[in-house]
Amino acid sequence: xxxxTLIFTDRTRGRWLPDLYSLSRSYGxxxxxxxxxxxxxxxxxxxxxxxxxxxxVFEAKNYQVSDGGLxxxxxxxxxxxxxxxxxxxxxxxxxxxxxxxFLYGNLEKETAHASRAAALYGLASLREPVMxxxxxxxxxxxxxxxxxxxxxxxxxxxxxxxxxxxxxxxYVTPALDMYDSYAKIKKDAYMKTGDDVTRTTVLAAVAAARxxxxxxxxxxxxVRMHPTEESLINLQKISYVKEIISRVPGGNPSLTYxxxxxxxxxxxxxxxxxxxxxxxxxAKDFKVTAIEGELGLTVVYETAQTDHVKxxxxxxxxxxxxxxxxxxxxxxxxxxIVEVTLEVTITKDAMDNYYKLTDYLPAGxxxxxxxxxxxxxxxxxxxxxxxxxxxxxxxxxxxxPYKDQETYTFTYYARIASPxxxxxxxxxxxxxxxIDSTAEAFDQIxxxxx
Length: 450
Prior knowledge:
Elements: E1 3-10, H1 17-24, H2 31-48, H3 80-90, H4 96-105, H5 115-125, H6 131-138, H7 145-157, H8 161-172, E2 176-178, E3 183-185, H9 194-210, H10 216-225, H11 234-245, E4 254-259, E5 262-267, E6 273-279, E7 287-292, E8 295-300, E9 315-323, E10 331-333, E11 337-346, E12 355-360, E13 365-367, E14 375-378, E15 381-384, E16 388-391, E17 394-399, E18 407-416, E19 420-424, E20 428-431, E21 438-440, E22 444-449
Parallel strand pairs: 10-22
Antiparallel strand pairs: 1-6, 1-8, 2-3, 4-5, 4-7, 9-11, 11-18, 12-17, 12-20, 13-18, 14-15, 14-18, 16-17, 19-22, 20-21
């Protein structure tokens, strides 16, 4: 019988506890770490009554340099992006006149892509009268997605939500790559790396949260899955949490259900999750009788392959066959041992960072349980198959993309079960976290001679 996996998750503000804990414990001397940690601790104390720890001493004045801007490290050079995101949080702890002067000065020059737009956002967050400057930027030719997001954030800071929504609809919506539970901003001419995509996507998360758009959490799911490697976005992330956590009820959620005649009370807890697997044929015997707080439910089940699965352009999978005697192709004889090779490519543009690779053997072949070579090749590396599943005609592996590696080759073996002509359904790669991040190989016909 097909199995259903029921996943109950906390939908109160406790679901942001992992984000807050992570940001509150971000150690280092960078302003994003120090200030982000302080704000996270304040939110933990306000919403969860968790006392601040004393090991984060942050003095904003130590980060304000001679030109009035804020530096990433104490006594470093000013950074317009850091200044823009930190300005509203430290306005009472710094020389505010010089801080504004620095941001206004950056309206006259473009020190980096979108730096002018970022400076406008910093000024708008301080409630400065920059409407004319915003209007000038809004009519710029070839406005990038990042600039459009800073514009939208600026208008939102000034209470102009309809204008922000129009900019978002005109420039951001066409640039979205949307999945069921994840969303990101597509690369453009100014986004060269995965870091660039994550940095722009977190801007979209903050803007969407402030406009109360449903894709806000989808953006943050992507940001969590694809952390930046060379830049810090702690201030953007904590701005997102601070924006959204105030709208969500608190509580200590719990679940009461009956299954097979037995009642169970399960405390989910803040940020918690509970998973239960039941046969689909007996699902009617599972009944939820009471819920405390707010819970989300995800039901996971396996379906037959269809032609309507959205493919992820960042993934490809190819399959080839040969006998261990060395003859490649799809024609074999009784007694042959068949080597099945699966080649998976997962680029940095792929939505997930953890994939399941599933191959479907045709009826005339049977998988050999004990592999002849229990490994796969990842470029120059030989990686052991620590985990492999064989379920009838289905053979599955798990793929953890390596930092600088994109192509992975898996090999397994099968014996001939019976002669004939058989259809081999295409192998499939599917994200474990982003289940609609998929790719499929072509179906093939296998010929087995007596």
